[in-house]
Write a structure and sequence with these properties.
Blueprint lengths: L3 H17 L18 E3 L4 E5 L18 H12 E3 L7 E13 L5 E13 L5 E14 L6 H30 L6
Parallel strand pairs: 1-3, 2-4
Antiparallel strand pairs: 4-5, 5-6
Helix pairs in contact: 2-3
């Protein structure tokens, strides 16, 4: 009889544990942009400066994204821009102006905005070339959607907005940065 009570208790505990444990959250791969040739800049370095700072308060939600937009923009810079002239007096400065996502009143509607500027700057701070791009994406998520469905939508927003921003920056750099682009 004493064998049955512990076995029953163990079965009950295992059953409760199985019911109360949620599936682990979905894991998303980092967003990278190594699918095209590097944009080779005749500068000594590529630096990233961020003027964007998340508030970590609603209605801002970018900090809850599986991959925040700011990180995807930084990845674009690392993956696509290359400094090829260590003796140049010029440097490339990429300024992240915005990488926000906000929840609309009442929830369910989310809008992400990204903006960045790429400047070729000399040792005295003079800007020789500049490119600026912005991108916006919105999505409506069913309020009854699972956390995984919400994260999947947010991941798609980050992927799409950073690809759009990067595509426009690349277009401008390749068309207007002569003689600093190769």
């Amino acid at each position: 009889m004493s064998f049955r009570i512990p076995a029953a208790a163990l079965a009950l505990l295992l059953g409760l544990a199985a019911c109360s444990s949620d599936e682990p959250p979905q894991r998303f791969p980092d967003i990278h942009f190594a699918n095209g040739p590097k944009i080779r800049l005749d500068v000594n370095t590529v630096e990233i400066v961020s003027e964007f700072a998340p508030t970590f308060r609603l209605p801002q939600v970018e900090q809850n994204f599986p991959i925040p937009p700011q990180r995807a923009i930084e990845n674009w810079v690392h993956d696509r821009l290359a400094a090829i002239n260590p003796s140049s007096e010029f440097r490339a400065r990429v300024t992240i102006l915005d990488a926000s996502a906000r929840e609309a009143d009442g929830g369910g509607r989310y809008t992400a905005h990204a903006a960045a500027r790429v400047d070729v700057v000399n040792a005295h701070g003079f800007v020789a070339r500049s490119a600026h791009a912005e991108a916006t994406r919105s999505v409506t998520i069913d309020p009854d959607a699972s956390a995984d469905d919400r994260d999947t939508a947010w991941y798609g927003m980050t992927r799409d907005i950073s690809a759009s921003l990067g595509g426009e920056l690349e277009r401008q750099i390749r068309s207007t940065f002569y003689p600093y682009v190769h």
